Amino acid sequence: MMTCGASVIWVVLVLLGSAADPVLGYRILGINTSPSRSHVIVQDALMKELARRGHHVTMVSPYKESEQVPNYRKITMPHVIGTWGKDFTASMLSNNNVRFGMIKSIPMLLQLSASSINETVRSAEVQDLLREPEGYDVLITGLMTDAVLGLATDLGCPTIVICPNAPMAVVNSMVGNPTPLSLIPNMMLGLSSPMSFWQRVLNVFGWVGEETMTLAWKYYQRAAYNDLFPADRYPSYESVRRNVSLVFLNHHFSKGVPRPYVPAMIEVGGLQIKDKPSPLPTDVRQFIEEAEHGVILFSLGTNLLSSSMPPEKLDAILGTFRALKQRVIWKWNSQDMPRKPDNVMLREWLPQDDILAHPNVRLFIMHGGLGGIAEALFHAVPLVGIPMFGDQPGNLEKVEQEGWVRVVQYAELTEQTLSAAVREVLENGQYRENVRRLSQLFRDRPQSAMDTAVYWTEYVIRHRGAPHLRYPGVDMNFWQRASLDVIAFLAVTGYALCKLISLVWRICCRGRGKSKLKKH
Questions:
Q1: Is the dihedral of CA 105, 107, 110, 115 positive or negative?
Q2: How far apart are the C-alpha atoms of 486 and 478, rounded to whole Å?
Q3: How far, in Å, CA of 269 to CA of 253, rounded?
Q4: What is the predicted pLDDT for the residue at 86?
Q5: Cα(403)–Cα(438) distance, rounded to whole angstroms?
Q6: According to the model, what pLDDT value does residue 34 have?
Q7: Distance from CA of residue 47 to its chain's centroid?
Q8: What is the biggest distance separating any 2 CA atoms in the chain, rounded to whole angstroms?
Q9: What is the C-alpha separation between 343 and 326, in angstroms, rounded?
Q10: Which of 56, 96, 313, 480 is spaced 20 to 30 A from 283 at the CA atom?
Q11: Sign of the dihedral defined by the CA atoms of residues 456, 459, 461, 465, in that order
């Protein structure tokens, strides 16, 4: 029988043994060269949390990171995206038809995303990482960085992809995730669910457009991959895409249409949202807390530079803010602003999630990005939306159906339209009531988005890529997954069998006819 002292020693040894893995930690490499900083923010949030939990994390991206986290090494390469933000802003804000402006920008965006990967992987900094003797246990990357997956061959580790929005065709194809056309509206169209007959017709055209976009996407990424990873030494581009162990989606079923997922696709909507907000900068905190009538947050996201806005649009926004009794915090990318109202604070970079968490924030004026929508939903802040490009119009149409946003189209943005929208959301309590109700749905989960992502990251490492999660459909083409080849085979076989039976019947009938004629 064990003595009391021996029992204590045994318990201590067990606890130390169980804590051994977290203390030693895994070595995790993250690379994300997306021109869109909002994409990188989502991955950065996971990488920093993995470091906080004892893993040794290295993150490579074009964007600086001010937060210092133990075990977190950041390698910043801003030159790989050059003047992307300025060029993209000029293209978008100068065109009232922002959807058309986005379509024109797609080739530039795809080409830049591929060239930034090429330059990043060839850099001395990344090459030094690859030569580190300790190696890495997993490679984590993001959207628009498919070509970097070839590094997993050199590292001998599994790969994880973080998608900053709902699954698209280019992401679904990595793990063979099904997307029934009759049930899942295309994310760019903003269709309701269930769809009517004509909406399903429109959805087919949306699917064709998305597949076309996917082909262009893969064309640029494949070119970068083949340049970096020669075919005589590395598996093909399509092969490494289909060998992704896991995809994290920054999406939640309460914010979209419920859809089927294969085991290798995990929803972690709101991954960048902190359970406990970080302290705000002193001047920002005082500006918010001293606002008698509350505060409005205004941001057009990480890709658009507000200072490049056409004068007539800027005047409309300034006129609206000048007439408000609320204070406004504006994400503004330059040092000054002409005719700035006294109730407006300008900041080049803002802790958006932490600001939205403050109870004195009354309204968020934004462009419709999924990250901002998720943060506003989590903190129950109603919206005024100005959709600009990509999935933003569809995102805001969905929120409009839920009743907690007033949408102002960019082409129709005037002082009158914007002022009316702001007053409507501030004065009509139904908007805040709706977002509070939906916020409860968004928050109600068995574990937080971050805990979910950390668990599955460690799961993939523990089980060496977790090949048992791999869905067989990932190796099939569209015809095979839909059994169209089987249906075609059965149709041809059935047709041939019917013709054969018909032929035999005619021959038999002729034989009987001749027999009767002879008897006669």
A1: negative
A2: 12
A3: 8
A4: 54
A5: 10
A6: 85
A7: 16
A8: 115
A9: 7
A10: 313
A11: negative
Which residues contact residue 128 at a Cβ distance below 8 angstroms, ignoring those fewer than 6 apart?
Answer: none
User: How far is residue 77 from each of residues 132, 142, 172, measured CA to CA in Å?
Assistant: 19, 16, 29
**pLDDT higher than 90, residue 481:** no
Q: What is the DSSP string of 54-118?
A: T-EEEEEESS------TTEEEEE-GGGTTTHHHHHHHHHHT-S-HHHHHHHHHHHHHHHHHHHHH
Q: How far apart are the first and last CA of the chain?
A: 109
Of 332, 354, 362, 359, the closest CA to residue 344 belongs to 332
Radius of gyration of the chain (CA): 28
Number of H-type helices and E-type strands within the chain: 20, 13
| pTM for this entry | 0.85
- pLDDT over threshold 70, residue 20: no
191: Cα within 13 Å, side-chain hemisphere: 24
Least-confidence region, from 182-196, 354-368, 398-412: 182-196
Question: Which 3 state secondary structure label does DSSP give 182?
Answer: coil
Residue with tokens 């034989």: 511
Number of other CB atoms surrounding residue 483 within 10 Å:
12
The total number of residues shown for the chain amounts to 520
